[in-house]
Amino acid sequence: MDRFKKTYVQGSLEVFEIWVDTETGVNYIFHRNGNAAGFTPLLDENGQPIVTPVTSL
Question: Average pLDDT in the 18-34 region?
Answer without folding.
Answer: 96
